[in-house]
Write a structure and sequence with these properties.
alpha+beta
Length: 564
C-alpha cells in the first residue's frame, strides 16, 4: 500500500522503531570498535541518544510533524553521548529545520529534510572524514533525492534510502584504511543504517515477524528505570513533579470479564499518551505492558481492563518518594567535608572535568578542578549532563575538560547551549587534563586559559594498559584475544600475554631524553605491587626520573601512565 504523506502517527512509529532497533543492536555496534579493547561504546551512545530524542518526541503535544521533529532534535541534542550521538543529533537538527511549520510531510518534503540533515551533520564536524557515518548519511540522502523524481510513494523512497545506506556502509572500509585492516565497517555508519532500517520497516510494514524484537522483562525494567531516573532526580523539588503516580500494568489481551475492545496499538497508545508522560507501551500477541506517569492511575487501569484482565499492577507516588530521597540525602549522604564544600561560595570560574575513579577525581580537584562529571570510556556523559553541571555550578563562566576524544563534540554542544560563557579545553586523556591544569590561572580570561592549557597538554605522553577482547590485526600488529595492550596517545604500541611486561615495554617507548616525571595511576583492576615493579623497571632505565604512583580507581584500564 502506497504512503504519500507522513503524519504524526507515522512519524511517532518511525522514531520508536529506531529507538528499539538501536537498543536491540547496541552491543553489535559496540563490537565494531576498531581497537579490540573493552571500551567500544558507539552503539550504547547512539541508543541512549535516540532514547532521549524519543522521550522528547513523545512528550510533544502537537500533532504537526515539524513540531515533533523539533522535539526529537532537542531530545537528541540534550541526550547526545559521544561523537556518534552528537552527529546523529545534528542529522535530525537539520531535518527539523527543514520541516519547521509543516503539519505533514509529503515525499519531497521528507527527502529534502533528510538531505538537509546530511548537510548539517557535515557542517558540524570540523574535519569531515569519509568512510564514516557522514558517508552513509550523504549517499543515502542523495538516493532519496534521486528516487523522489520517480515516485511519490514514501515506502519506495524510504526503502531506497535504506538500501543505499547499506551500500554506503559496505564501502566504508574502502574509504578508511584502518577499517579494512581490522575487517569491520564503520560503527557509527552501522548505527545510522539501523535507524533507516527501522524507519523503512515502520513506514512500509515490511517487518520479518520471526525476527521482530520484543524486549524481555529485564530489558523493559531497565528501560523503565532509565525513564524514571530521568524524570525524578535527586535535586528535583517534589513540587515540580508534573505527574504524581508512576503506574505500571501488564494486561492479558482478550482475557477477563470486562473486555469490550479489540487491541489496536495506536488506539491504545494514543489514549494513554493524553493521560500523562514517560509512556512506554510494549506488546506481543498475548500481553501488553504499560509504564506511564499520570495523575489518574485508576483511569489507566480501567482503560487497560477494556482490552484484557490485569495480570500485574504497580503504582508508586513519586512525589512522596522524592520527598523521602531529599530528606535522606540531606541527613545522611553528605560527609562533613562534602557539606563544607557544598556550603562554600561558588567559584568565579567553574573548571569541570569528566573522569571516572575516586582517586582520579581527588587528584584533579587537588589541581584546581572544581566539579567532576562521572564518566569516560564506556560512560560518555550526555550534552545535558555537561550542560547541567555548567548551569548548576553557580559560577559566572566555565571551562570544560572532556578528557576523552569521544566527548569533544558533546562538550562543544554543551558550551553552545549553556547559560554562562563556556570554553572547552580539548583534553583527550586524564594525563592531558593534569598537565593542562598546571597552566590554569584563576586571574586569566577564558580564552587565555583555553589557549595556555591546550598548549601545555601537548607536553605530556599518555599511556593506557588494557586487554584485547578479540583477535585482530592493526598497524601491522597481530593481536590475540586476552593479550594485554599498551596504547600511547591512541596508538597500540605493545601487545603481550603479560600485563607487567606490556606496561614496561610501553613506558620505555614513551621515554626520551627530555622526560622528567612519570605518573602511574592504578585502576580498579590493577594493584600497587605491580605498579611498584613498573616503577623499578623505569628507574632502571633512568634513575633520575621522578616516578609517582597514585590510586586512580579507574575502570577498563588497570594502569594509566603519563610521561612529561
Amino acid at each position: 500500500m502506497a504512503v504519500t504523506e507522513i503524519t504524526n502517527l507515522e512519524f511517532g512509529k518511525m522514531v520508536q522503531a529506531a529507538a528499539d532497533k538501536l537498543n536491540k543492536n547496541a552491543e553489535f555496534i559496540n563490537s565494531l570498535n576498531v581497537f579490540p579493547v573493552p571500551d567500544g561504546d558507539t552503539g550504547t551512545n547512539m541508543a541512549s541518544s535516540m532514547a532521549s530524542g524519543t522521550k522528547y518526541e513523545r512528550a510533544e503535544n502537537s500533532t504537526a510533524v515539524g513540531d515533533l521533529s523539533a522535539a526529537l532534535a532537542k531530545g537528541l541534542l540534550m541526550g547526545a553521548r559521544g561523537n556518534s550521538g552528537v552527529i546523529l543529533s545534528q542529522i535530525f537538527r537539520g531535518f527539523a529545520k527543514a520541516t519547521d511549520g509543516l503539519e505533514k510531510l509529503d515525499a519531497q518534503a521528507f527527502v529534502d529534510a533528510y538531505a538537509n540533515g546530511a548537510k548539517t551533520a557535515y557542517k558540524a564536524v570540523m574535519k569531515p572524514t569519509e568512510g564514516t557515518i557522514l558517508t552513509v548519511v550523504r549517499e543515502s540522502a542523495q538516493e532519496g533525492l534521486n528516487k523522489v523524481k520517480e515516485t511519490t510513494d514514501l515506502t519506495e523512497i524510504m526503502h531506497a534510502i535504506y538500501e543505499a545506506s547499506e551500500v554506503a556502509l559496505k564501502k566504508t572500509p574502502d574509504l578508511l584504511p584502518v577499517l579494512k585492516e581490522v575487517g569491520v565497517v564503520d560503527s557509527g555508519g552501522q548505527g545510522l543504517v539501523f535507524v533507516l532500517q527501522a524507519f523503512d520497516e515502520a513506514l512500509s510494514g515490511r517487518v520479518d515477524k520471526s525476527a521482530d524484537y520484543k524486549p524481555d522483562n529485564a530489558e523493559v525494567d531497565e528501560m523503565v528505570n532509565a525513564m524514571d531516573h530521568q524524570s525524578v532526580q535527586g535535586k528535583l523539588d517534589p513540587k515540580d513533579i508534573k505527574y504524581t503516580y508512576c503506574t505500571q500494568m501488564l494486561v492479558r489481551l482478550g482475557k477477563g470479564k470486562q473486555v469490550t475492545k479489540k487491541f489496536d496499538y495506536d488506539t491504545f497508545y494514543n489514549h494513554l499518551a493524553e493521560m500523562g508522560d514517560s509512556l512506554l507501551v510494549l506488546n506481543d500477541d498475548q500481553v501488553v505492558r504499560v509504564h506511564v506517569h499520570t495523575e489518574h492511575p485508576g483511569e489507566v487501569l480501567t482503560w487497560g481492563q477494556q482490552f484484557g484482565d490485569l495480570q500485574t499492577i504497580e503504582i508508586h507516588n513519586m512525589v512522596w518518594q522524592q520527598e523521602e530521597i531529599m530528606e535522606h540525602d540531606e541527613e545522611e549522604s553528605a560527609s562533613p567535608v562534602e557539606k563544607a564544600e557544598q556550603a562554600a561560595p561558588a567559584p568565579e570560574t567553574a573548571v569541570i572535568a569528566v573522569a571516572s575513579g575516586d582517586g582520579i577525581a581527588k587528584l584533579l580537584k587537588s589541581l584546581g578542578v572544581t566539579h567532576i562529571i562521572s564518566g569516560g570510556q564506556t560512560m560518555n556523559p550526555s550534552t545535558q549532563d555537561i550542560t547541567e553541571a555548567i548551569n548548576q555550578s553557580g559560577a559566572k563562566q566555565a571551562l570544560v575538560l572532556p578528557d576523552n576524544g569521544n566527548i569533544f563534540m558533546t562538550a562543544d554542544q554543551a558550551a553552545e547551549v549553556a547559560d554562562i560563557p563556556t570554553k572547552v579545553v580539548h583534553t583527550k586523556t586524564i594525563a592531558q587534563a593534569m598537565s593542562a591544569m598546571l597552566e590554569y590561572n584563576e586571574e586569566a580570561s577564558l580564552e587565555e586559559n583555553q589557549a595556555n592549557m591546550e598548549e601545555n597538554m601537548t607536553m605530556v605522553a599518555s599511556g593506557e594498559v588494557t586487554h584485547a577482547i578479540r583477535d585482530t590485526k592493526i598497524d601491522g600488529m597481530e593481536i590475540q584475544k586476552d593479550d594485554f595492550l599498551g596504547i600511547v596517545d591512541g596508538k597500540i604500541v605493545e601487545a603481550t600475554p603479560d600485563l607487567k611486561e606490556t606496561a614496561i615495554k610501553m613506558v620505555k617507548q614513551m621515554l626520551d631524553e627530555d622526560s622528567e616525571v612519570v605518573t602511574i595511576l592504578v585502576g580498579a583492576d590493577g594493584d600497587t605491587a605491580t605498579a611498584e615493579d613498573i616503577k623499578a623497571a623505569i628507574l632502571d632505565v633512568d634513575d633520575e626520573l621522578d616516578v609517582q604512583i597514585y590510586d586512580g580507581g579507574q575502570p577498563v584500564y588497570p594502569y594509566l601512565i603519563s610521561v612529561e
